[in-house]
Design a protein that fits this description.
The chain has eleven helices and 14 strands. By secondary structure, the chain is α/β, with parallel strands linked by helices. It has helices spanning 7-28, 34-47, 59-69, 87-94, 113-119, 139-149, 201-210, 232-262, 291-300, 330-338, 350-378, and strands at 52-56, 77-80, 98-101, 124-127, 152-156, 164-165, 168-169, 176-180, 194-198, 215-217, 220-221, 277-278, 284-287, 339-342. The radius of gyration is 21 Å and the shape is globular. The chain has a seven-stranded mixed β-sheet, sandwiched between helices. It has a three-stranded antiparallel β-sheet with strand order 7-6-12, with no helix packed on it. A two-stranded antiparallel sheet has the order 10-11. It has two domains: 7-102 and 110-242, Aspartate Aminotransferase, domain 2; 245-378, Aspartate Aminotransferase, domain 1 (Alpha-Beta Complex). Helix 3 packs across helix 4 and helix 8 (232-262) packs across helix 11 (350-378). The structure holds pyridoxal-5'-phosphate. Pyridoxal-5'-phosphate (PLP) is lined by residues 58-60, 84-85, 87-88, 130, 156, 158-159, 180, 182, 194.
Length: 379
């Protein structure tokens, strides 16, 4: 059996370090924020080339607080993409602002800067490009439009720890960056966690207050805040894992390169690393019009796959009130029908990538044979 992600394999490799980190927190009895979180913030800021990093309780709370720090609220519009995890749009909704959706570039599956310009209105306040699958959106083009119109750019880097755009780190490109440490992410906690990066001391102090009840010091609440603190156990675990992240990212990139090479002549549409990008392959998604069949056939061969994501946000029942229709974001809708995420994790072996690739090759051959039959029958 080849799992889609193999968290036990990761844990086996670093068990001793994790045990020590957890024991340290238990003995300190400092269970939330505290020195482990403060040190992790410093180390992650350094890793991202950001001046500031604020640990929070999830990627979703990171997005929520980044938007609040940017002063986004009712009456404002925030632009993002429909082809993302629902949290991006939910966080906009939490602030009372209106999510405005624009389509993706069909090659990178990230926000299309050309679609962005057309969606601007006098109420637009912020843009959230999503670095989907671990590859940055085309940030120079997006930032140029944002600067021209005085808009704030918040990176959804929840899948992009360590990703680069023209040599610069995800999270250091926009005004604020948001990360998730959900267990399955490239850097995952033993539970929930998230973080906001920024170069601005003002944003830093606002997010820092908002995550802990808006207090500038104990019981002195100057803002209406939240309980969005990062737990000390997570901070300690994340410090351990951050030390391994570059090695894990290189291992993911090597696994992606093996898939690329093995499937190069298959006729299957493979993910493409943009010229500007260092892709960190949170997800390695191929595309096929026979997805349901391929997923079932791979499952029957013991190969687990994922779909990220089967529905674009504008076609989800929860967001029908945004008023969008099917057909409005054709690249997002097509991607949602075709993407299939192959097993991808740092510990993936050469035997495993070879087995996955040969199963995909076989399916590709069968599918093109059956397509040829249909064409023959029609003719
Ligand atoms: C995981 C994820 C989030 C939300 O992060 P949580 O930690 O699960 O709240 C937001 N956006 C994207 C693109 C994600 O992948």
């Amino acid at each position: 059996m080849i799992p889609f992600v193999d968290l036990p394999a990761q844990h086996r490799a670093i068990r001793g370090e994790i045990d020590d980190a957890i024991r340290g927190v238990l003995e300190s009895c400092q269970f939330t924020l505290g020195s482990e979180v403060a040190k992790f913030e410093e180390e992650f800021a350094d890793y991202c080339d950001s001046r500031f990093a604020i640990g929070v309780s999830s990627g979703t709370s990171a997005l929520h607080l980044a938007l609040l720090a940017a002063n986004v609220g009712p009456g404002d519009e925030v632009i993002t993409v429909p082809f993302t995890f629902v949290a991006t749009v939910a966080a906009i909704h939490y602030t009372g602002a209106t999510p405005v959706l624009v389509d993706i570039d069909p090659c990178t599956c990230t926000l299309d800067p050309e679609a962005l310009e057309a969606a601007l209105t006098p109420r637009t306040r912020a843009i959230i490009p999503v670095h989907l699958y671990g590859q940055c959106a085309d940030m120079d083009a997006i930032l140029a439009i944002a600067r021209r119109h005085g808009l704030i750019v918040i990176e959804d880097a929840c899948q992009a720890h360590g990703a680069q755009y023209k040599g610069r780190r995800a999270g250091s490109l926009g005004d604020l960056g948001c990360f998730s440490f959900y267990p399955g992410k490239n850097l995952g906690a033993c539970g929930e966690g998230g973080l906001v990066t920024t170069q601005s001391a003002d944003y830093d102090s606002t997010v820092r207050m908002l995550r802990d009840w808006g207090a500038e010091r104990k019981y002195r609440h100057v803002l209406k805040g939240y309980n969005y603190r990062l737990e000390a156990l997570q901070g300690a675990v994340l410090r351990v894992k951050l030390r391994h992240l570059e090695d894990w990212t290189e291992a993911r990139r090597a696994a992606a390169a093996r898939y690329d090479a093995l499937l190069a002549d298959s006729g299957v549409r493979l993910p493409r690393e943009a010229g500007y990008a260092r892709h960190v392959y949170h997800i390695y998604a191929i595309r096929t019009s026979m997805r349901a069949l391929w997923k079932a056939e791979l499952q029957a061969r013991g190969i687990h796959t994922g779909i990220h994501y089967p529905f674009p946000v504008h076609l989800l029942p929860a967001y029908s009130d945004l008023g969008y229709r099917a057909g409005q974001f054709p690249h997002s809708e097509r991607a949602a029908q075709e993407v299939l995420s192959l097993p991808m994790f740092a510990e993936l072996t050469e035997e495993q990538t070879a087995a996955v690739a040969s199963a995909v090759l076989e399916l590709a051959r069968q599918s093109s044979a059956s397509r040829a039959c249909e064409l023959g029958a029609a003719g």
